[in-house]
Amino acid sequence: MNTLQHLYEQLRNAFDVDDLHIPLTAVKFYRKQELIPGHIYAHHPTDLTLTSCQATKQASLGDAVCLTLENIGCVAAAISFGLVNKDDEQPLRGPRVYTDIMKNQSGLEQQFNPPTPRDFTEGIVYACRNSGHFDYCLFGKEDSGRYKDVRTAKLAVSDMMAIQPAIMKGVFFFNHEFDDQELEPDVIVLGVRPVELARLVQAYQYQTGRPVQSSMGAVRVVNSDLIVRPYLTQDINISTYCVGARLIAQFEGDRLGMGMPFSVFQELVKAMEASRTGYPYHQYPGAGG
Prior knowledge:
2 domains; 12% strand; 6 strands; six-stranded antiparallel beta sheet; alpha+beta
């Protein structure tokens, strides 16, 4: 079995340019009946919560993270990952990064009641202005919300892929530097510049003849578009990073996300090598790392 480290080096080399860095995060799901190995659970922080965007970014930098219902910082990601049922009417206990932003901006720290998973599912959170829940705003009283009204928000949410009902125990985020040659991820997420994305799409179509699909949403991009959609469809998806990824996790302005099942990643690496002479990437403007 090719290790993730080996595959990553093959991928980089196939671009034929020096010092190319493509952030990579590998994602492994653990179902409720499975045991999370101790050396993986050791990366389960207990003194803070992290959004899925933060975990993805952190893992790409070499700092592995295991998220569970206890330390996931975003209710929406907990829904997407199948850690909580989408219609639960009880808020997640304790502080959470995403809802703490709401609490702090509202000035209602003492009276703040965090939104429930059902509030997200029904569109109430994302249409905070229209729903009259100004305590769910992220950017002060003038915040328009993420959608113009509850009906539009609920329509958008209905198209966001999620693992439901809740069957997952944990989600592990790591990269090619993680020392476990037996750990096979479920999904690979690459942070790519448009010029790198072009070359990857070219390699994929060289091998398959199939176009690469793109389903982009305004929110839940990392957890739903880039991780869960590839996991459930077993196909590639491309999306921009959402407001949480940009502002909370600080994803760079020149990066897009490309998510795929691990098996597709393995084939894509082979395709990059096989097609390198047909697509001279090193001649592309801006190709250098």
